[in-house]
Amino acid sequence: MRKPIIAGNWKMYKTFDEAIQFVEGVQDKVPSNDNVDAVICAPALYLPTLVQIASEFELAIGAQTMHYENEGAFTGEISPAQLASVAVDYVILGHSERREYYNETDEAINKKVAAALAHNIVPIICCGETLQEREAGTTEQKVAGQITAALAGFDAQQVEHMVLAYEPIWAIGTGKTATAEDANQVCGAIRATVEKLYDSATAQAVRIQYGGSVKPENIEELLAKEHIDGALVGGASLQAESYLKLLEAAANA
Ligand code: 13P
Fold first, then answer.
1. Most CB contacts within 10 A, which of 113, 153, 199, 213?
2. Is 135 a residue of the active site?
3. Dist. CA 225–CA 32, nearest whole Å
4. Distance from the first to the final alpha carbon of the chain
């Protein structure tokens, strides 16, 4: 039985005060992490403060991207060593917005996964297809390729502890959710890819999230599906009330 994991991706939203208010506001309400892993991936600037507040309860804090080098002349970038130095637990890697707007390649993502593991940061590795690819019937091929590239060079034990996230690009921030059946089918294809690359035990252990217009109204249906182990959530993670509803639904799934 895989424990559900709900990760909020705040993207480039919230001022510092709003971020603090949110985390302080959910403090007494986050369900026990016996039942659900609760994560918030916040703007990098706020991470140390949020880690400090969240260390009092069962909320993990993550970053939204990072470089793969530990240090160097990379103006504006943040390194895995720097994230680890403020006790960040998770990092989102290969989000479609990073791939599209910042030219993040499969090769760079693979290096970032290695760097995250070297610092005991859990990578949340994203994959997903464009609308054009879905319509052309190449969705499963696309995500299998992205996942295979991201996992190159890691052994089964390392892969077991990673989180994979299927986010169809056409469903992000559009209000269009993939049907639970479609989402499950692609998450199943991702699991089959892991089985092919490793073995059945690894495929059964790795957690796969769905992301793309997830909200309290559709989370239960998604989590009821065999291959969907949680959600990577943008818009609905910005308000404490809806984020807590997602956690509750996952804790009771
Ligand atoms: P929305 O939940 O706003 O569609 O965003 C999904 C996403 O990109 C999470 O990483």
1. 113
2. no
3. 22
4. 11
Is the C-alpha dihedral spanning 164, 168, 174, 176 positive or negative? negative
At 175, the pLDDT band (50, 70, 90 cuts) reads confident
Q: How many angstroms separate the CA atoms of 70 and 81, rounded?
A: 5
Spatial neighbors of 175 by CB under 8 A, at least 6 apart, are 213
pTM above 0.90, yes or no: yes
Examine the pLDDT at 234 and tell me if it is beyond 90: yes
Amino acid at 99: R
Q: Are strands 122-127 and 163-166 parallel, antiparallel or unpaired?
A: parallel
Q: Which ligand 1 atom lies nearest to the CA of residue 213?
A: 4
Mutate to test the pocket of ligand 1, among 41, 172, 210 (most ligand atoms within 8 A of CB): 172
142: pLDDT strictly greater than 90:
yes
